[in-house]
Amino acid sequence: MPDEDQAEAENRRRLLSDLYGTDVPSSMQGELLRTSDVARLFQVSERTVSDWARRGRIPSVRTPGGHRRYPAEEIHRLMLAAQQGEIPESPT
Fold this sequence. Notes:
This protein is mainly alpha-helical.
């Protein structure tokens, strides 16, 4: 399966390059997590994660189908801050 994951990542990079050229938005460059993944990480409901995104508490992007995806790097940063008892700044 690692070869499949690697192939999928390469296909994703190629698609983003086709769509955006060299100007891929920074939120789209890294791995994107699903709402269910973020909910599991923070041990909250998917609805809570969606509410956080709607209110700007966590960064998200929308897929063409309207689903939210969350930049893994930003979610990791927020998790570390939460573990240290810090309230991270809202993304701008």
